[in-house]
Amino acid sequence: MKMKIQKLNTAVLLGVMVATTMTSFGINAAEIKDQAKNEQIIESSVVETNTLNMEAYIKGLTMLTEKEKAQLLATEEKLKEDTQALDKIYQTLDQKLNQALQIADIGKMYDDIMAKNEALWKKLEDNITPEQDKIQDERAFINASKVLTKVEKATLLKEVEEREKLDRLFEEKEAKVLEENKDLLDQAEKIEQKIQAEDVKNQSIWDKVAQYEASNRNDVELY
How far, in Å, CA of 3 to CA of 81, rounded? Predict the structure, then answer.
């Protein structure tokens, strides 16, 4: 268990950076979307891989009739230009945010902070107690350690504070980028609304897929 928060590694513009037609399909489509991403970061190749993965995924849904598959594929084709436009907007925003972060050198600041106490973090994480394993709060997690001295705990708690300051700086840069590109966000919202309106028509089909996969997961857990 590693409580350290590496926010920069998930530098995604709020929740809007998960755009594809799959966002409103529910859990199953979201899982396929995650397979097309690298460590939760939208990459430039997603525009291509989303379409390919989704088409293959739909064709492989054995619990659906051919008519139901055809309906989902038709929706994918109908929304293809919209999803590509949406992905392009989010990639543009992501690039602008990355530029802002590079100018502020936030990445190096995170790296410098996290490099200082690697040995202490390893000592902490190599000696986690069952009680600690249930703790979600990072400070409480550190304070509950049975192996760290008071000085060592204070050192890690100071690092947490330093990283939280960087998190706030990150959020300020993020908010500034979003404010400066409000027109792009407005465009994205309109496209998302159009996509969601089409996706609603297929909700009963995706519910069928969700129920089937939930049943399969339950069966696996029995063994």
Answer: 40
